[in-house]
Amino acid sequence: MIAKNHQITYKNVASKYYNFLPEEIELAFADLDQILENYGFHVKDQLFFSIISDPTAPVMTAEIFRPIEEDDFLPMPKSEDIRFRSYFSVNGMLMTRITDQYDEQSQTKYWELMEHIQMNNLVQSSPVFVEFKRSHSGTAYVEMCVGVTG
User: Fold this and answer.
1) N or C, which end of the chain has less CB nearby within 10 Å?
2) How many Å apart are CA 45 and CA 68, to the nearest integer?
3) Residue 41 φ/ψ, nearest 5 degrees
4) How far is CA 93 from the centre of its chain?
5) C-alpha closest to that of 80 among 51, 40, 50, 49
C-alpha cells in the first residue's frame, strides 16, 4: 500500500554524505554518530537517510541524517563535512511501510514507489528517504518515501 501526502519533519538535524557498499550502511551510521559525539552533540533516537545513487549501483551514495538534542550547532571543522539544518521538512510525498524482512522488502518497495510515480504521471521531486521508526508498543518498522509533484 502506498500512502499519499506524507511528510518528513525534523528539528535540529545534522547530516553527511557517504559512499559505501549497501551491506556496510551500519558503518556509515556509526561514523556519523561518532563524529557528532566527538564534538559534544547528543544524537536523538531517530535516524533517516536519502538514497542519492541509482539503487542498482554497487556503491551506494546516501545522505545520512541524525537529529540532535542541541539547538545550536557549534563550529565544527569543515573537514568533517557535516551539514546542519534547524528545520528539515519535505512535503507532498508518497510513502510505503516495511514491517519485516527489511533487506528483501526494501528493493520491492522502492520499485513499487517508482512504478506508482510512472503509472500516475507524477514527477519525482526528492530523493527516496528511508526512516527508521518505532511504534508506541516498541515494534520497529521502516518508512520509505519520495517527494512527488503533478
Assistant:
1) N
2) 9
3) -90, 155
4) 13
5) 40
For the entire predicted model, the pTM comes to 0.93
- CATH number of the domain to which 46 belongs: 3.20.80.10
Q: What is the CA radius of gyration of the chain?
A: 16
What is the pLDDT confidence band of residue 150, given thresholds at 50, 70 and 90? Answer: confident
**Tens digit of pLDDT for each residue in 8-45?**
999 999 999 999 998 999 999 999 999 999 999 999 98
DSSP conformational letter for 71: S
Using CB atoms within 10 Å of the CB of residue 60, give its burial: 0 to 12 exposed, 13 to 18 middle, 19+ buried: buried
Contacts of 88 (CB under 8 A, 6+ apart): 8, 9, 10, 11, 13, 65
Phi, psi of 46 (to 5 degrees): -90, 150
- Domain total in the chain: 1
Give the position of cell 538535524. 13
Domain boundaries, position 132: 3-149
- Using an 8 Å Cβ cutoff, are 48 and 132 in contact? yes
